[in-house]
Write a structure and sequence with these properties.
- Strand 7 (about 130-135) and strand 8 form a beta hairpin.
- The chain is built from six helices and eleven strands.
- The chain has about 210 residues and is an alpha+beta fold.
- It has an eleven-stranded mixed sheet, sandwiched between helices.
- The radius of gyration is 18 Å and the shape is globular.
- The chain has helices at about 20-25, 35-50, 100-110, 120-130, 160-175, 190-195; strands spanning about 5-10, 10-15, 25-35, 55-60, 70-80, 90, 130-135, 140-150, 150-155, 180-185, 200-210.
């Protein structure tokens, strides 16, 4: 299902992010402009629900304060040199292992707020960009990871300690002295892990409210 970059009504304009609707049952609305924000939010929610979304979240409207806050998206950073050492290794995903990696990713991130569902097309894009990895430690696959340049995009544990191993293995291979990531403020387990490794919040990127 394709996103709609410009969804317009007499009440305003928004970007509808529908790519997660088939897999995760969620859709996201980025408001671009609004004459009547509350009415626009309802119209966007109705369209997204008709497209198959079970839950709709929006950002960019002052009027959204009347809707339930779902989560904030935070940027966190850490100095690479300050991160602990780890024996974990990254195993790049290949064409032969892509389906397994995407299945694991979608299973692990289904309940994570604002996570992106990976369709087969997006999976191929991730493979082409060489951003996806399995994480290997002590003779077993303990996690999966995704990242590029100096940013951690996603990590997930497949065994106890796998999340920590994934963060450290990926950070070691990323560029630059400072490692960044984005995390939902309600994702308590992820926040606890990142904070324990020395990541600190530097910015609130967005607030997402549940609408409809």
């Amino acid at each position: 299902m394709k996103d709609i970059p410009l969804f317009t009504t007499e009440n305003g304009a928004a970007n509808l992010i529908l790519g997660c609707a088939p897999g995760f049952g969620t859709a996201y609305v980025r408001v671009l402009s609004a004459q009547d924000g509350d009415a626009l939010a309802r119209e966007c929610a109705a369209f997204c629900q008709a497209a198959g979304a079970e839950a709709v979240y929006a950002t960019g409207l002052p009027e959204q304060e009347s809707w339930p806050l779902s989560t904030e998206i935070w940027r966190m950073t850490a100095q690479k040199a300050s991160l602990p050492q780890s024996q974990a290794e990254l195993i790049p995903v290949t064409a032969e292992t892509l389906e397994e990696w995407v299945t694991l990713y979608n299973r692990k991130f289904r309940a994570v707020p604002n996570a992106v569902w990976l369709s087969p097309g997006l999976g191929q894009a991730v493979l082409k960009a060489r951003e996806a990895f399995f994480v290997w430690l002590a003779g077993q696959t303990v996690g999966i990871a995704k990242g590029a340049e100096n940013e951690i995009h996603a990590v997930a544990a497949l065994a106890p300690g796998g999340g920590r191993a994934a963060v450290l293995a990926l950070a070691r291979e990323l560029a630059g002295p400072e490692i960044t990531l984005e995390v939902a403020s309600v994702n308590g387990k992820a926040l606890a892990l990142y904070q324990s490794l020395g990541f600190r919040k530097t910015e609130t990127l967005a607030k997402w409210y549940k609408i409809g």
